[in-house]
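User: Hey, quick favor. My workstation is busy. Could you predict this chain's structure for me?
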Amino acid sequence: MANAPVYYALAQAQFNPVAAMAKYVGEVQDILRRDGYTSFEPHQVAHLQLTAAPGQASSEPQVAHTTSWLITKGDRASGFILSAASITFHSTHYETSKEFIPELLRGLKAVHKVVGLEHISRLGLRYLDAVLPQSDETIEQYLADGLLGVHFGATQRYALNESVFETQSAPLVTRGTLVARVHRMTSPLGYPPDMLPSGLIPMPKFDIKDATPHAVIDTDHFVEGRMSLDFEKIDEQLVSLHATMKLVFDATVKDHARAVWA
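Assistant: No problem, here it is.
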C-alpha cells in the first residue's frame, strides 16, 4: 500500500534465558552497529514484585528493575530491543514484510553468534494500524460493520472490540494464537501501554498530538513452543504468521479503506 496505515510494528523472538546477557551485549551491539544500528542505550523498566514464603501472607511489594538494551538506527526509525530472554525488532517507518521480517532474523543471528542460543520459545508479530478519517469522512466508512459497536444516541468516549482466534501455522509450530483488537476513541494517536516504541520517532503523518476521532487496529499473532535454531524455518514461520494477519486485516476493513490506502 502506498499510503499504508501501519504506524508501529514489531517482531519478536523469545529464547532460552541468558542470565549473563549484560556481559555479551557489547559484542551483539558491535555486530549490529556495522549494519547501521549505531545508537545504543540501556533501558530500565521498574515493576512491582511480590514474594511470600509457603503458608505466609505476601510481603510488602518490592520495586524491581529489568534492564534491556536499545540498539537503534541513527534516524531512530527502527531498531532492536534486546533483553536476557528475547530480541525484538520494531519500526515506526514500516514498509513491507519483505524488509521487516529479515531484520528480526538479522538480530537473532547476531545474538546466536555471540551467546550460542539453544532454542526459541516464542515467535510473534504485532501491528498497529491507524484509521484516520478525513474531515468529510467517518470511521464507519473504514471498518467492517461488525466492529462498529452499540449506538443509542449518547456520545461515545471509547470502544474496544476484541477477538481471539486459534490459527494454523507452519513449519515449526502448527497452532498459533491471533488477537485482533479495534480501539475507537477521540484522543491523540497513541500506543497500548505494553507496546511503546522506545527510542524511536513516529512518521510525521502519524505524529498526532491533538484529540482526533480515530480507530486503531491492533493485530497480534504468535506461536509458542520449543523451536530449533533453523533460520530458514524461523523465516517461514514468520511469513506464515504474517499471511494470516493479512487475512484478518482484510476482514476488518471495508473497500473504502483499501482504496484510500492503496
